[in-house]
């Protein structure tokens, strides 16, 4: 059984790379939005023409990016949504809601201080992790049934 995983959310740290590297050897395929911030912001006007009003500039970019994002989420078996420390990722919350509406399995990744703010997003998730390594272990368990090294099943 292989998994197609969409990595949504914060673009300012290397969390995606940590998950991809940690999942080496697992039967997984990863997809993600464009993480080049400037390209993501300016794709609409670069492709479809300039906009003097910043609202329409951003709107064009969001619409073009949505083509990739919707396809990535729709094709995913699992959607990992990262909420970082520094910025508010409203787009990540939207992606989580879209994934939930499509019935996708969601893993949320965020620091502990965001627990309260994300309680509704967490309620839609099947796992809430604090580190990329925990996400990798969830994926490993789902694919292989193996617990992390040094862990054993609880005695009954």
UniProtKB/TrEMBL annotation:
InterPro entries: YtoQ_family_protein
Domain of life: Bacteria
Organism: Dinoroseobacter shibae (strain DSM 16493 / NCIMB 14021 / DFL 12)
Protein name per UniProt: YtoQ family protein
Pfam families named among the record's database cross-references: Nuc_deoxyri_tr3
């Amino acid at each position: 059984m292989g998994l197609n995983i969409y990595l949504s959310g914060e673009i300012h740290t290397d969390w995606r790379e940590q998950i991809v590297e940690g999942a080496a050897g697992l039967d997984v395929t990863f997809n993600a939005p464009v993480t080049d911030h400037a390209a993501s912001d300016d794709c609409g006007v670069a492709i479809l023409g300039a906009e003097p009003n910043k609202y329409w500039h951003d709107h064009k970019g969001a619409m073009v990016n949505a083509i990739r994002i919707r396809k990535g989420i729709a094709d995913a078996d699992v959607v990992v949504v990262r909420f970082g420390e520094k910025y508010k990722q409203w787009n990540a919350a939207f992606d989580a809601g879209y994934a939930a509406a499509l019935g996708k399995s969601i893993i949320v990744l965020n620091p502990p201080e965001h627990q309260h703010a994300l309680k509704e997003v967490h309620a839609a998730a099947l796992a809430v992790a604090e580190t990329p390594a925990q996400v990798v272990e969830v994926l490993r368990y789902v694919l292989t049934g193996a617990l992390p090294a040094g862990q054993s099943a609880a005695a009954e």
